[in-house]
Amino acid sequence: MKFRQLRVAGAFEFTPVVHRDARGEFLEAYRFEAIRDAVGFVPEWKQTNLSLSARGVVRGIHYSVAEPGQIKYVTAPAGRIIDYVVDIRPGSPTYGQWDSVELEPGTRRAVYVPAGVGHAFIALEDDTAVSYLCSEVYNPAAEFGVSPFDPAIGLEFPLPRAELVVSDRDAGAPTLAEAIAAGRVADWRPDPAGNTGGMR
After folding, report:
1. Pick the catalytic residue: 63, 73, 112, 132?
2. pLDDT value, residue 197
3. Which domain holds residue 14?
4. Which H or E element spans position 33?
5. pLDDT, tens digit, for every residue of 86-145?
6. 19 among known catalytic residues
7. Could you give the CA distance from residue 88 to residue 146 in angstroms, rounded to a whole number?
């Protein structure tokens, strides 16, 4: 499995080797050594989430402020998404920056989202499935969001705004500046291995 550092500190893209023949395909969708080599430690995964989305659905930008922070490992087993990582951590060396990766069954790529980093995606096909390994269980009191349309962040979507479908929660989410002013964003700190992926 290969990995690539994204523009957001502590975030990585993982690309497995996919073996295909007349029967179908086989791959190692997750391997702990690849995570360890990229980020310096191996998270303990405590929950798996699965979402199904129609074309044009935008989910996010979501993040958690719970301690010790929720790390995500995101794949798209069916359909196709553009997956976004957004550095909303004041003090981070890449604060305010974002990056994106296309996730789909052809490459079986995955995205590692470090604790405290905002996460969003847009579904490009109907019946798109997105799976998340999470290092902490869902804690609604510590889950927040910022607007995917915040002009100061400037996410670029491949579909026209009129075709995008968002929840009421995401549509009404604050801008990043408003979230920081309300004290709902955690400052950056190195992760347990000393890398630039954690939060406090």
Report:
1. 132
2. 44
3. 2-199
4. helix 32-39
5. 999 999 999 999 999 999 999 999 999 999 999 999 999 999 999 999 999 999 999 999
6. no
7. 9
User: Which one of the listed residues 62, 63, 84, 112 is annotated catalytic?
Assistant: 62
Query: Is the backbone peptide bond immediately before 148 cis, with ω within 30 degrees of 0?
Result: no
Q: Which residues contact residue 129 at a Cβ distance below 8 angstroms, ignoring those fewer than 6 apart?
A: 50, 51, 52, 76, 77, 78, 79
Q: What is the CATH number of the domain that holds 173?
A: 2.60.120.10
Buried b (16+ CB within 10 A) or exposed e, 28-38: eeeeeebbeeb
pTM equals 0.93
Total domains, the chain: 1
Amino acid identity at 170: D
Average pLDDT over residues 156-178: 97
Check whether 44 has a pLDDT greater than 70. Answer: yes
- Which residues, at least 6 apart from 75, have a Cβ–Cβ distance to it below 8 Å? 29, 103, 108, 109, 110, 130, 131
Q: How many residues does the chain have?
A: 200
- Examine the residue annotation and report whether 62 is marked as an active-site residue of this protein: yes
